């Protein structure tokens, strides 16, 4: 049997690292789970080196058995890190130890690859602004610097790149494409439902997606994302090659990503596009009937309350049922045509409208239907699964040993909340001494962190401040933020529950601390703001949810993390409220199971922004006194790193000033 420990040691040695007890414990636990055919939840703190901790035993299994192991990540950043750094290092180590070199491949969804049919046929027929390279070039020549010209030049560059990828046998991966916008990429890619299929597409023999799947079918280790894992689960295992084991990295995001993948939306604009694409093949009466559904849906949305829809007699389900019936007739009239690509794509668009309308009209107990409104989208209907635990239990954990790993898996100090959310029940948990388990048996292990949180960080809970209200940040809270940012001389990451609060805090600090630079989300692209925050001293960055999990700023640039309030789900979030009610109706505690667990996860992620390296020092300032005063506060605190804790603001200010070398 291949020694995964030797592979891990070789990989760590190759990158000039040192043995880490947590990383070694993780590798042992992963190997044991694979061997025992059980499931494993591994909490591995930041700095553990968890990627190599699971890659070493995964590749050892590939060598020993010839079986395929899949790794699923949530973010493109980690996928890129694995592909470009960790996996090559691990493969070198395997070859060094065993003399064999397994094959690895990255597998992404269809829209992450360019489509030759779309790129060569001149774009989306219903968009009108870009009908072909010649028209784009002409528009670019007539105008100077306007949006059409910029978009046209962008699309021309993308099409040239696509042809180059086809010539050299590449995969036309979006991550490798020239700089582009979402609108530009839409001109050279295709939605999954509109794909003609490899046999019907005139360019099927050159298809980048098919080529990427061929590469994956030959691989021993496949790296994919949570979204494709969700599609694989929802469609009977058709999206991923057959595999014997699965590792889910960034597992704290799994439920959210699976929910997103299983959520459908419906707008009048979507129906209008599908109708207009179909008109050429419909008789006048049916075509007009389909177009009439656009206005019927718009009226139903306008009459709907901006909340969950539960009654079949409500305007939206009624309109969705009528739309479903018409869409069925249209799909039947379009027929099953394979020699006309435009007609085939129109049929796919109509079938998608049918599927979503049917799901909304059904108002199934396991679905949540609601309506929202935004300036960009207008009114939109959504339908999402009430719970994804059953899907994950049967279609993920029921298929073979699965490892879930993250820096945040114990909520309230226990694994059970995170396990339950993905379909692993408390009764399924295995005591290490209990022996064999059934197909859903799981273990949980916390391998710790290389950081000494009690020496490196302080958790300051501002007990003296008033509880958060609905009318923006209190004047005392704003003053507290300014004092903390002053003490840190900038170097602060402000994590706010709303854009309004972030803007309010930024405006206040700019007025009170004119010598410091206060950046706020929305001032520029997030990547640009993060770069400035990292590179420019005396700078603070304030923002909302995308900063809670997506920013890694080690060193002196970030010595203060400010959190304005406990991030409970919004009371007007229909899906979270429906999940809470379902737990209550079943006799459980919906607040603790849903709202508090959601908040604990985000708090752990937010507080985790402070200590990213063993040299980091600083303060997490929690400006919501409920963390100390409410009954649920201990559950939330137990989910955070083990910082030294105080409720004395003067202690926090003094600590920040000492970090700046001010001992007065």
UniProtKB/TrEMBL annotation:
Helicase ATP-binding domain segment(s): 9-313
InterPro entries listed in its UniProt record: ATP-dep_Helicase_C, DEAD/DEAH_box_helicase_dom, DinG/Rad3-like, Helic_SF1/SF2_ATP-bd_DinG/Rad3, Helicase_ATP-bd, P-loop_NTPase
Required cofactor(s): [4Fe-4S] cluster
Keyword field: ATP-binding, Helicase, Hydrolase, Nucleotide-binding
EC numbers for this chain: 5.6.2.3
Pfam families for the chain: DEAD, Helicase_C_2
Superkingdom assignment: Bacteria
One MF term in the entry's GO annotations: helicase activity
Name of the protein in question: DNA 5'-3' helicase
């Amino acid at each position: 049997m291949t020694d995964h420990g030797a592979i891990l040691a070789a990989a760590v040695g190759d990158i000039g690292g040192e043995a880490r007890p947590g990383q070694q414990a993780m590798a042992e636990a992963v190997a044991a789970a694979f061997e025992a055919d059980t499931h494993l939840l591994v909490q591995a703190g930041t700095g553990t080196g968890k990627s190599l901790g699971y890659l070493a035993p995964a590749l050892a299994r590939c060598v020993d058995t010839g079986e395929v192991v899949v790794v699923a990540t949530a973010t493109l950043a980690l996928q890129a890190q694995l592909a470009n750094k960790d996996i090559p290092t691990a493969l070198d180590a395997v070859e060094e130890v065993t003399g064999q070199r397994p094959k690895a491949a990255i597998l992404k969804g269809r829209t992450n690859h360019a489509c030759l049919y779309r790129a060569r046929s001149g774009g989306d027929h219903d968009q009108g602004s870009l009908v072909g390279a010649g028209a784009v070039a002409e528009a670019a020549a007539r105008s100077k610097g306007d949006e059409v010209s910029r978009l046209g030049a962008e699309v021309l560059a993308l099409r040239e790149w696509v042809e180059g990828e086809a010539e050299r046998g590449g995969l036309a991966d979006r991550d490798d494409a020239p700089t582009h916008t979402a609108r530009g990429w839409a001109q050279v890619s295709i939605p999954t439902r509109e794909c003609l299929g490899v046999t019907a597409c005139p360019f099927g023999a050159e298809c980048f997606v098919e080529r990427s799947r061929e590469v994956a079918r030959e691989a021993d280790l496949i790296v994919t994302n949570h979204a494709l894992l969700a599609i694989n689960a929802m469609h009977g295992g058709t999206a991923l090659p057959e595999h014997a084991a699965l590792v889910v990295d960034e597992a704290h995001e799994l439920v959210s990503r699976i929910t997103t993948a299983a959520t459908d939306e419906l707008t009048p604009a979507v129906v209008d596009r599908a109708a207009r694409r179909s008109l050429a093949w419909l008789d006048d009466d049916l075509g007009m009937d389909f177009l009439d559904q656009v206005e019927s849906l718009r009226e139903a949305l306008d009459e709907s309350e901006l909340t969950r829809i539960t009654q079949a007699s409500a305007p939206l389900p009624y309109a969705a049922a009528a739309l479903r019936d018409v869409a069925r007739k249209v799909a039947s009239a379009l027929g099953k045509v394979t020699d006309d690509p435009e007609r085939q794509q129109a049929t796919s668009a109509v079938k998608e409208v049918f599927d979503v309308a049917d799901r909304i009209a059904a108002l199934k107990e396991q679905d949540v239907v609601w309506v929202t409104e935004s300036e960009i989208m207008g009114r939109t209907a959504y339908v999402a699964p009430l719970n994804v635990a059953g899907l994950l239990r049967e279609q993920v954990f029921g298929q073979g040993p699965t490892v879930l790993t993250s820096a945040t898996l114990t909520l309230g100090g226990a694994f059970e909340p995170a396990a339950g959310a993905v379909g692993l029940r408390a009764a399924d948990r295995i005591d290490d001494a209990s022996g064999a388990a059934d197909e859903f048996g799981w273990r949980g292990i916390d391998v710790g962190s290389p950081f000494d949180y009690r020496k490196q960080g302080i958790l300051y809970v501002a007990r003296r401040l008033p509880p958060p209200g609905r009318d923006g940040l209190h004047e005392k809270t704003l003053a507290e933020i300014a004092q903390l940012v002053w003490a840190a001389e900038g170097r602060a990451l402000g994590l706010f529950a709303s854009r309004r609060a972030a803007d309010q805090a930024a405006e206040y600090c700019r007025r009170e601390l004119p010598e410091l630079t206060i950046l706020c989300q929305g001032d520029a692209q997030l990547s640009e703001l993060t770069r400035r925050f990292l590179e420019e001293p005396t700078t603070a960055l304030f923002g909302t949810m995308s900063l809670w999990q997506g920013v890694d700023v080690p060193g002196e640039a970030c010595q203060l993390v400010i959190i304005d309030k406990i991030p409970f789900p919004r009371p007007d979030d229909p899906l979270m409220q429906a999940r809470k009610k379902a737990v209550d109706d079943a006799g459980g505690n919906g607040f603790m199971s849903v709202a508090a667990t959601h908040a604990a996860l985000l708090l752990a992620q937010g507080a985790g922004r402070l200590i990213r390296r063993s040299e980091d020092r600083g303060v997490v300032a929690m400006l919501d006194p409920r963390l100390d005063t409410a009954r649920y506060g201990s559950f939330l605190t137990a989910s955070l790193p083990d910082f030294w804790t105080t409720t004395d603001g003067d202690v926090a200010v003094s600590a920040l000033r000492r970090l700046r070398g001010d001992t007065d």
